[in-house]
């Protein structure tokens, strides 16, 4: 004997019911079956609404009654043969008249008791089971309508009645034990010993099936629904959920208690007692495997089977030194709450015994507060309890799995992933069964928490990095090209999914949770974007609540770099090519380092010096390894390097500068290179990274921009004015050349002295062999005393810079090859 249960979604339409009829008929051919059905999709909710409206004296319930009648009649006409239709329709009319009478009574008396509500709600299943039994008969299957109220006996706790098991099992066995006919049983409803209709709680049809299965010692209980079994997380909240193949009864109980809605929690118990497997299958894809719930847990590699949540709970905390070491305190708390009919969902108590904290449903919170306030009035007055605090808008998230037992590292991974994503945990509980770790977080962190934990356990192989890019000029566009080129390889070889969730330039921005293509910008931003506002961009990005979220700054804007503190405080890691933040006031530089630590975010800016060259990383590593930096010396500008490596006195100097701009070496405004500011910024950053407290005003900077060109109001006019000085630059060049020297713009920091400026160097100088946009940085340190540690290579250009930014992103994403996280 197998028990098949079909939920509302499986009997939601004519098409769906046809599928159900086919399935039942096929299953019947394989052996004896009993069928439990829910009301047609949405009917119970409508009945609930109707009875509330009637009790308010509102006559609109009549329209809804008419709609229910029409819907059921239509199904009868479509699924039942013409000959049988009139009998079925007559019976249907009798049922609906009975419903109408009750509702009319409620509307006249304006009185709605829990008893009446249960009676009204039961009509959904009475109608559906009756129609389906007749439709089965009409299609040739020997079937009969079975009213569960004849069998399932409960106490009179209307709305959520408790089943009297022994009596119920006896009734079921007597009614169905020997039957060969397919009984189509009303789910959800039951009756008291006096024959009054009760209900088993919303979702109670699953429970009906389990009771019938246990009473008849069925070989299996099949719950047919509209999803492919129980998922690793709620599909509405976690996009990358996966189906769970099997669960133990205990795991299923834990998951269903914590909100996995596919199965109604009380369902497990009767099946478990009789060791009957429960299959959860999709009516619309019967070929899919689904989930099986059995005695034995199958241990999976991740140890965790599923992540579940109870959204919106209130956390109540009792605090006071008077509770320490006093026996019976906890008992008093729980007795007070039990007397007030408050259900405690989760409890934690610190071993100091100074606080007890527990979660309850919001609609029970004020009852709980009142009960505790009254019960502990004396202790509150005497100061034995300092306060009873209520914190609404919280959620509980639980990771569940039999394999968590005695497996070290599970909670480590769990909490590490939360910490990394800046999620604050309000309370923690782990049962001694070790099958469940639960945390309480604020409601607005729920989606992020679920996704973070889910990814940590199930998708550790594939990790989404959610990118929010600001600035799509030269560097930003090249970075997008690189994303496009590397995305597949990163996904396939390194399990990293680059997801562009936000993009902005100075005019517009766009945010999309599901991600956006890497191509088509900035045109798409122009036509579809929202006018840019940093606050709005961050706010919307934050609202997405995505784990592994990363801001990338590819602007040269101080407005953007001034915004970094807000970005970090919102728990976004940050990668920047923009040097403005780190070369601004020392206080700002230090604040950013501290904020990154405080908010547990990563802040990487390798491209601030030497573009894609590993300069900052190398310096950080030296400092962390205890080395002491004594002198920093180098050619830090790709632009100036290119200019003086290329200029030979033949082509006009201003044309060579233009060449640097065209090759993408310069800052958006090339005067920033020529005036030494870009080099000064880089030297300042290196000195700070080396541990020196330096301000920009401490630097001596040689400005190569001739006075008249400094204030030019556009880049074109700057070049025009610069051309007037071509001869002066030629003179400088010739002078050096006449001595066998060349010109080189050098940055130097030693013993608090920082200079950047143009120097003549001879052919033996270590910097004389540079070509193209080469940078060279020599670190003289205690460890590298005789010969400096040197980093050399192209130090500007869109390609190398984009590569450097992507390397920072991958470092943050923990790609093994980049896992040395020096921040
Ligand atoms: N060219 C190179 O070799 C290297 C450049 N960098 C740095 O890369 C950064 C970007 O340089 P480019 O791409 O050449 O600049 P760009 O001028 O071509 O592009 C800047 C982008 O930032 C956007 N933007 C400017 N202000 C904004 C604001 N307030 N809000 C939103 N968006 C804003 C612009 O709309 C544009 O999309 C600069 O900080 C530069 O120092 C770093 C290393 C090497
Ligand atoms: N304009 C800069 C680009 C890199 O930071 C340079 O020329 O070095």
UniProtKB/TrEMBL annotation:
Q: Does Coiled coil show up as a keyword for this record?
A: no
Q: Which residues form a coiled coil?
A: none
Family of this protein:
In the N-terminal section; belongs to the aspartokinase family.
Pathway noted in the entry = Amino-acid biosynthesis; L-lysine biosynthesis via DAP pathway; (S)-tetrahydrodipicolinate from L-aspartate: step 1/4; Amino-acid biosynthesis; L-threonine biosynthesis; L-threonine from L-aspartate: step 1/5; Amino-acid biosynthesis; L-methionine biosynthesis via de novo pathway; L-homoserine from L-aspartate: step 3/3; Amino-acid biosynthesis; L-methionine biosynthesis via de novo pathway; L-homoserine from L-aspartate: step 1/3
Q: Where is the ACT domain?
A: 318-393, 399-477
List the NCBIfam families.
asp_kinases (TIGR00657), PRK09436.1 (NF006959), PRK09466.1 (NF007003)
Catalytic reactions on record: L-homoserine + NAD(+) = L-aspartate 4-semialdehyde + NADH + H(+); L-homoserine + NADP(+) = L-aspartate 4-semialdehyde + NADPH + H(+); L-aspartate + ATP = 4-phospho-L-aspartate + ADP
Q: Quaternary form?
A: Homotetramer.
Q: Its Gene Ontology biological processes?
A: homoserine biosynthetic process; lysine biosynthetic process via diaminopimelate; methionine biosynthetic process; threonine biosynthetic process
Membrane-traversing stretches: none
- Key word Lipid biosynthesis present in the record? no
**Know the name of this protein?**
Aspartate kinase
Q: Which GO terms describe its molecular function?
A: aspartate kinase activity; ATP binding; homoserine dehydrogenase activity; metal ion binding; NADP binding
Cofactor list: a metal cation
A Pfam family it matches: Homoserine_dh
PROSITE patterns registered for this protein in UniProt: ACT, ASPARTOKINASE, HOMOSER_DHGENASE
Looking up InterPro entries in the UniProt record yields: AceGlu_kinase-like_sf (IPR036393), ACT-like_dom_sf (IPR045865), ACT_Aspartokinase (IPR054352), ACT_dom (IPR002912), AK-HD (IPR049638), Asp/Glu/Uridylate_kinase (IPR001048), Asp/hSer_DH_NAD-bd (IPR005106), Asp_kinase (IPR001341)
Q: Give UniProt keywords alphabetically.
A: Amino-acid biosynthesis, ATP-binding, Kinase, Lysine biosynthesis, Metal-binding, Methionine biosynthesis, Multifunctional enzyme, NAD, NADP, Nucleotide-binding, Oxidoreductase, Sodium, Threonine biosynthesis, Transferase
**What is its biological role?**
Bifunctional aspartate kinase and homoserine dehydrogenase that catalyzes the first and the third steps toward the synthesis of lysine, methionine and threonine from aspartate.
């Amino acid at each position: 004997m197998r028990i098949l249960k079909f939920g509302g979604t499986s009997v939601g339409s004519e098409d769906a019911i046809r599928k159900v009829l086919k399935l039942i008929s096929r299953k019947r051919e394989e052996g004896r079956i009993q069928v439990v059905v829910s009301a047609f999709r949405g009917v119970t909710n409508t009945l609930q609404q109707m009875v509330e409206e009637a009790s308010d004296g509102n006559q609109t319930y009549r329209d809804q009654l008419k709609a229910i009648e029409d819907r059921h009649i239509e199904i009868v006409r479509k699924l039942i043969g013409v000959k049988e239709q009139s009998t079925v329709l007559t019976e249907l009319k009798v049922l609906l008249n009975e419903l109408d009478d009750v509702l009319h009574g409620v509307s006249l008396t304006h009185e709605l008791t829990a008893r009446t509500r249960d009676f009204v709600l039961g009509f959904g299943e009475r109608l559906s089971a009756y129609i389906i039994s007749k439709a089965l008969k009409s299609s040739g299957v020997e079937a009969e309508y079975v009213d569960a109220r004849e069998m399932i006996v409960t106490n009179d706790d209307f709305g959520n009645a408790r089943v009297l098991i022994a009596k119920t099992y006896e009734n079921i066995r007597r009614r169905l034990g020997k039957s060969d006919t397919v009984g189509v049983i009303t789910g959800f409803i039951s009756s008291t010993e006096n024959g009054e209709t009760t209900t088993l709680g919303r979702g109670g049809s699953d429970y009906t099936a389990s009771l019938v299965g246990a009473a008849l010692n069925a070989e299996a209980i099949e719950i047919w629904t509209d999803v492919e079994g129980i998922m690793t997380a709620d599909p509405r909240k976690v996009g990358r959920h996966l189906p769970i193949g099997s669960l133990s009864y205990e795991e299923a109980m834990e998951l269903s208690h914590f909100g996995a809605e596919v199965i109604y929690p009380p369902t497990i118990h009767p099946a478990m007692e009789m060791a009957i497997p429960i299959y959860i299958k999709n009516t619309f894809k019967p070929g899919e495997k689904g989930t099986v719930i059995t005695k034995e847990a199958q241990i999976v590699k991740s140890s965790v089977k599923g992540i579940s949540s109870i959204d919106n709970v209130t956390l109540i905390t009792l605090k006071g030194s008077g509770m320490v070491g006093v026996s019976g305190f906890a008992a008093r708390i729980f007795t007070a709450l039990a007397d007030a009919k408050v259900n405690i969902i989760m409890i934690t108590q610190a071993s100091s015994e100074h606080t007890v904290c527990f979660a309850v449903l919001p609609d029970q919170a004020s009852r709980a507060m009142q009960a505790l306030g009254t019960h502990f009035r004396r202790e509150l007055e005497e100061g034995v309890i300092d306060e009873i605090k209520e914190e609404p808008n919280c959620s509980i998230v639980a990771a569940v799995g039999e394999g968590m037992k005695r497996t070290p590292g599970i909670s480590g991974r769990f909490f590490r992933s939360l910490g990394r994503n800046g999620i604050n945990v309000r309370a923690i509980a782990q049962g001694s069964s070790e099958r469940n770790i639960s945390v309480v977080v604020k409601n607005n962190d729920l989606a992020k928490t679920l996704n973070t934990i889910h990814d940590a356990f199930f998708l550790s192989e594939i990790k989404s990095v959610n990118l929010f890019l600001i600035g799509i000029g030269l560097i930003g566009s090249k970075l997008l090209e690189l994303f496009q080129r590397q995305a597949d390889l990163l996904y396939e070889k390194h399990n990293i999914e680059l997801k562009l969730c936000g993009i902005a330039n100075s005019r517009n921005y766009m945010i999309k949770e599901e991600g956006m293509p890497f191509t088509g910008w900035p045109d798409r931003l122009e036509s579809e974007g929202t006018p840019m506002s940093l606050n709005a961009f961050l706010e919307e990005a934050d609202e997405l609540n995505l784990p592994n979220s990363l801001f990338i700054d590819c602007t040269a804007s101080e407005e953007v770099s001034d915004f970094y503190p807000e970005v970090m405080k919102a728990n976004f890691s940050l990668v920047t090519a923009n040097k403005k933040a780190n070369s601004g006031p020392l206080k700002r530089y230090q604040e950013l380092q501290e904020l990154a630590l405080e908010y547990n975010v990563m802040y990487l800016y390798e491209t601030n010096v030497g573009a894609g060259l590993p300069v900052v990383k190398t310096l950080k590593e030296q400092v962390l390894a205890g080395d002491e930096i004594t002198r920093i010396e180098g050619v830090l500008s790709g632009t100036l390097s290119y200019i003086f490596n290329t200029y030979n006195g033949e082509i006009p100097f201003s044309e060579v500068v233009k060449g640097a701009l065209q090759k993408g070496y310069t800052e958006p405004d090339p005067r920033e290179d020529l005036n030494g500011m870009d080099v000064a910024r880089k030297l300042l950053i290196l000195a700070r990274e080396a541990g020196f407290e330096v301000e920009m005003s401490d630097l001596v900077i040689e400005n190569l921009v001739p006075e008249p060109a400094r204030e030019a109001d556009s880049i074109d006019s700057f070049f025009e004015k610069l051309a007037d000085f071509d001869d002066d630059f030629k003179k400088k060049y010739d002078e050096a050349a006449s001595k066998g020297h060349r010109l080189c713009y050098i940055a130097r920091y030693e013993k608090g002295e920082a200079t950047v400026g143009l120097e003549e160097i001879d052919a033996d100088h270590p910097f004389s062999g540079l070509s193209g946009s080469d940078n060279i940085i020599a670190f003289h340190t205690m460890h590298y005393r005789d010969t400096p540690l040197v980093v050399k290579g192209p130090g500007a250009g869109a390609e190398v810079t984009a590569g450097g930014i992507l390397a920072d992103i991958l470092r943050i994403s923990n790609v093994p090859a980049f896992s040395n996280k020096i921040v």
